[in-house]
Design goal:
Number of strands: 0
Helix content: over 70%
Number of helices: 20
Shape: elongated
Distance between the termini: 80 Å
Bound molecules: fe (ii) ion
Largest sheet: none
Length: about 475
């Protein structure tokens, strides 16, 4: 019952955003078709059909968006700009259509789908591609010829879907143009098939122009992806793979700050990054996001590094001279100080959230029990992090790996069994304390995380080369 009410509440609070995002592209198409009706190019009947299809698509996309747990204002804006831009471009190119028959091949429609995939969501891009293909081919065909409409529709749809699949594997921007070659081949094949189907001469000017337009479409798409992606990333502070790779560069000023001011924390963060990335990849979560977020998660410690154990080598522990409450205040502050700095430097929201959540609402046991020794009535909540608890799988994995790394570090050469006991105890403790309740992790995934962390730690601790001792080496020489 409670679950149902929450879903309805969520939908009601999302309703304006959903409608706003879903209505954008269909509305623009209706506007274009209305203009064309007044110019005498289409009848009222055709406009009526366009309106019906627009309503149908508004409903379909509304349902699609309502399935997303986190549909942000930035996703709405990115969709509005991309849909609006593509619809206007189609309308502008269509103006040449009465004189050049094959002009629709030049529409760089692949860029629309690829950018939606990067900036919004893959499934949303797939669904929106269908809408853009149907509406786009209506605008070009104007209901004159069914085969012309079908050619345009198939070309637009296949181009977008293939591009979503194709450009999903791009790791750097240099490879973008190389990756475009299969798209050119697809365009070429489709143009050829359409020409053969309509019994046109394969050496006609029309065919040649169609080929040139389809190649240009791929080229313009690649340029648009290359040019617009960084603008969107910067404008909306969106998280993309290329942005994560940039943030993982050790030359970033914040990473340098951790290395210089808190070298122990830097080493800890790199270890947490390695553990978290592997664990996330093992459960199908975003390993790169986990790696990068782990690098930055303890940036808040770099303001008072000596109060954190990993930076206290060869020095007196400053907490020895402080009341437990004062010590707790200093330590409990670091996730929030960290989030503040990351916000100042414009890091993506996902990394800021992981920083805030990396201790959840856990208890600072050492200082709590120290305070309790002095005063039995001590308030436990005074020694807990303010949270929130991890809200995503990546956040929960970092939360676990953070504690595991700290616990294992304190052991000089732990056995496999000791490592497993530590990892298991930490996961168990987090579960019982309700820290993982909102992380969407399943028990099966927790088991996979445990296995992955143990394997990695065993590799680190037990791969040292065993050198023979002095007696053995003598024996070998004498032998
Ligand atoms: Fe921390
Ligand atoms: Fe940490």
């Amino acid at each position: 019952m409670v679950g149902k009410r929450t879903m309805v509440d969520n939908y009601q609070s999302m309703f304006p955003k959903v409608i706003f995002s879903a209505i954008t592209a269909p509305m623009l198409f209706v506007l274009i078709m209305t203009v064309q009706m007044f110019q005498g190019e289409i009848s009222e009947y055709h406009l009526g059909m366009t309106i019906l299809i627009a309503i149908l698509f508004t409903v379909i996309i509304s349902f699609e968006i309502s399935h997303y747990k986190f549909w942000t204002k930035n996703m709405s804006l990115a969709n509005l700009l991309l849909s609006g831009g593509m619809v206007l471009l189609i309308a502008a190119i269509q103006a040449f259509s009465p004189t050049i028959d094959s002009i629709f091949y030049i529409v760089p429609i692949a860029a629309y789908a690829v950018l939606l995939n990067y900036l919004v969501h893959e499934r949303f891009a797939m669904v929106s591609s269908v809408l853009m293909a149907i509406m786009g081919s209506f605008v070009f065909a104007l209901f004159d010829s069914v085969s012309y409409f079908m050619n345009a529709f198939l070309y637009f749809l296949m181009s977008q879907w293939f591009a979503i699949f194709l450009y999903d594997f791009i790791k750097d921007r240099v490879s973008l143009f190389k990756t475009s070659i299969p798209l050119i081949v697809l365009h070429f094949s489709m143009v050829s098939v359409f020409q053969v189907r309509s019994f046109s001469d394969l050496l006609s000017i029309d065919f040649m122009m169609a080929i040139v337009f389809s190649v240009l479409s791929t080229f313009v798409s690649a340029v648009l992806i290359l040019g617009l992606l960084p603008l969107f990333e910067a404008g909306f502070n969106l998280l993309t793979e290329s942005k994560l790779l940039t943030l993982s560069n050790p030359n970033h000023s914040l990473l340098k700050k951790i290395l210089v001011d808190a070298p122990g924390t830097y080493h800890h963060s790199v270890m947490v990054a390695n553990l978290s990335e592997s664990a996330c990849e093992a459960i199908g979560a975003n390993g790169l996001l986990a790696r990068v977020a782990a690098y930055y998660h303890d940036i808040g410690k770099s303001f008072q590094p000596k109060y954190f154990i990993e930076n206290q080598q060869n020095m007196k522990n400053p907490h020895d001279d402080l009341e437990p409450e004062v010590s707790a205040d200093i330590i409990l502050r670091h996730p929030y100080e960290g989030a503040r700095v990351l916000r100042e430097y414009g890091l993506p929201q996902e990394i800021i959230e992981i920083t805030l959540e990396h201790h959840g609402t856990t208890l600072l046991k050492y200082f709590y029990f120290q305070a309790k020794e002095q005063n039995q009535e001590v308030d436990e909540s005074r020694f807990r992090y303010k949270g929130p608890t991890p809200q995503s799988k990546e956040s929960a994995v970092i939360n676990i790996c953070d504690s595991v790394e700290a616990a294992v570090r304190s052991k000089s050469n732990p056995t496999s069994e000791e490592i497993r006991n530590v990892v298991r105890a930490i996961i168990h403790d987090r579960l019982l304390d309700g820290q993982l309740d909102e992380s969407q992790l399943t028990l099966k995934e927790l088991r996979v995380i445990e296995e992955t962390i143990c394997d990695l730690l065993n590799g680190i601790f037990h791969s040292r080369i065993e050198y023979p001792d002095e007696n053995d080496s003598k024996a070998v020489k004498e032998g």
